[in-house]
């Protein structure tokens, strides 16, 4: 079954404690990205990757890091989380062509106290 | 500055009637548009798309209309069903594999 998986699904942490949200896809997609969803703001892109070792900033990259060492994985790293990073995070992937369907993961709800 | 706008945060429609969700954009370079549907506790799922060379695309009960001169697109759902109750996101992109830009979403409630 084609899918994008994220872990953990829910996380409560404290300010400053480094965390990683993993994302993995089984569709051999070149393109992967991270979004955050906040009330009244919709989906905003954090980072994206066109292929292995190629990453680029989206609209709201401050406070986040990503890496793309393997095609299937695209972890999101918060080196020093802050309360304003409390949000619902989605990972997504698609093929090379933008007309390809973009598949989203189930989401990770992060709360930073 | 918001490039993709969904000005109606919510919409209620009776089952069997037509649902019309609207989306406006400001960037004239956008040439590919999509609609995504999102249920609670799930990720968005792709619904339908349209290229700027077309003004209409249909898939079953879902039709997307594009008016380039007005920089406006709409999603029609006919007939609406209770299972269509979800948040609908409009998205757009510029040629060249650039990231999607999403609107804020419209919550559709279909009342039985």
Q: What is this structure, in a nutshell?
A:
The complex is a heterodimer of chains A (113) and B (112). By secondary structure, chain A is mostly beta strands.
Provide keyphrases for this structure.
heterodimer; A: 113 residues; mainly beta; 7-stranded mixed beta sheet; 4-stranded antiparallel beta sheet; 50% strand; B: 112 residues; 6-stranded mixed beta sheet; 5-stranded antiparallel beta sheet; globular
- Report helical residue fraction of chain B: under 10%
Counting helices, strands and paired strands, the structural category of chain A is mainly beta
Largest sheet of chain A: 7 strands, mixed
Q: Unreliable segments of chain B (pLDDT under 50, ≥5 consecutive)? A: none
Quaternary structure type:
heterodimer
List the helices and strands and how they pair.
The complex is a heterodimer of chains A (113) and B (112).
Chain A: E1 4-7, E2 10-13, E3 19-25, E4 31-38, E5 42-51, E6 54-57, E7 65-66, E8 76-78, E9 87-94, E10 103-104, E11 108-112
Parallel strand pairs in A: 2-11
Antiparallel strand pairs in A: 1-3, 3-8, 4-5, 4-9, 5-6, 7-8, 9-10, 9-11
Chain B: E1 4-5, E2 10-14, E3 19-25, E4 30-38, E5 45-51, E6 56-59, E7 62-67, E8 72-77, E9 86-94, E10 101-102, E11 106-111
Parallel strand pairs in B: 2-11
Antiparallel strand pairs in B: 1-3, 3-8, 4-5, 4-9, 6-7, 7-8, 9-10, 9-11
């Amino acid at each position: 079954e084609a899918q994008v998986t994220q872990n953990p699904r829910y996380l409560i942490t404290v300010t400053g404690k480094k965390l990683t949200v993993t994302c993995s896809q089984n569709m051999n997609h070149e393109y992967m990205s991270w979004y955050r969803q906040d009330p009244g703001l919709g989906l905003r892109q954090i980072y994206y990757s066109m292929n292995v070792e190629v990453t680029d900033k989206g609209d709201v990259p401050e406070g986040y890091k990503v890496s793309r060492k393997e095609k299937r994985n695209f972890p999101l790293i918060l080196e020093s989380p802050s309360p304003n990073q409390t949000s619902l995070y989605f990972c997504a992937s698609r093929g090379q062509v933008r007309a390809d369907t973009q598949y989203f993961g189930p989401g990770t709800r992060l709360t930073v106290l | 500055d918001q490039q993709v706008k969904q000005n109606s945060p919510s919409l209620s429609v009776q089952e069997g009637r037509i649902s019309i969700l609207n989306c406006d954009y400001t960037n004239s370079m956008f040439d590919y548009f999509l609609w995504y549907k999102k249920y609670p506790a799930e990720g968005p799922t792709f619904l339908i798309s349209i290229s700027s060379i077309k003004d209409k695309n249909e898939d079953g009960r879902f039709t997307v209309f594009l008016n380039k001169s007005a920089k406006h697109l709409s999603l029609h759902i006919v007939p609406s069903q209770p299972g269509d109750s979800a948040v609908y996101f409009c998205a757009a992109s510029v040629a060249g594999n650039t990231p999607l830009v999403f609107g804020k979403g419209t919550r559709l409630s279909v009342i039985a």
